[in-house]
Amino acid sequence: MIQVFGTNKCKATKAAERFFAERSIKVQRIDLASKGMAKGELERVAKALGGVAALLDREGARAKAKGLHLLSVDAERLKQMLLDDALLLRTPVVARGTLASVGADEATWKRLADAEKQGA
In this model, does residue 7 exceed pLDDT 90? Predict the structure, then answer.
């Protein structure tokens, strides 16, 4: 099943949900404002994206308030920060198995939709 991690206020998250709904694909929606990613989910998505740094929303108000847009943080510390505060994640995070995307990425969403339809 395709998972969409995001917030109710995020336009890109709503776009991802609409993308899959238009293709009659059910998704599991996880609201990051109330529940974060599990450690295994975060690690799997980070691996698919080439590292945990791809998940940090450096331009977001929350990251800026913590000074993360200016700092270079090692991967383990950043992973723990994202586990502790899910609102530091770029949204939406869309994942299925070993394939994932972050932000508005319709090309990857299409690959995810195709994989879901094929049951692969």
Answer: yes
